[in-house]
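Q: I have 105 residues here and want to know how they pack in 3D. Can you give me a structure?
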Amino acid sequence: MAHVGGEPFDSNQARFSQCLESSITRTLPYVAADDIPFGTAWNTEQNYGSGCGFSKWAATQTGVSLSTTLEVPYATVRDKIINQQNARQFGQEMALAIRNYLKNQ
């Protein structure tokens, strides 16, 4: 997950990452420690020189407290092969994580 950066987004993204990690039980692995904090690797201000990405734009909208990007590789996640079935299951577990995040806000 690529973080947007700045409060309240940093803490909200970290909280959502924990919700997602605890919701993933039977599909593709997700480890919050693998997230890409803003300001590291490619996730820097310089990478958006010609505009801003969706997450950064969404963060500017009124009432938005969580804005992030989740990138799913095309082949494997931590040595687990991605297929239609486990990708769908991951989507279901992600929906549960979103529900838990919103419920505990």
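Q: Anything worth noting?
A: Residues 2-103 form one domain. Residues 84-103 form the longest helix (20 residues).
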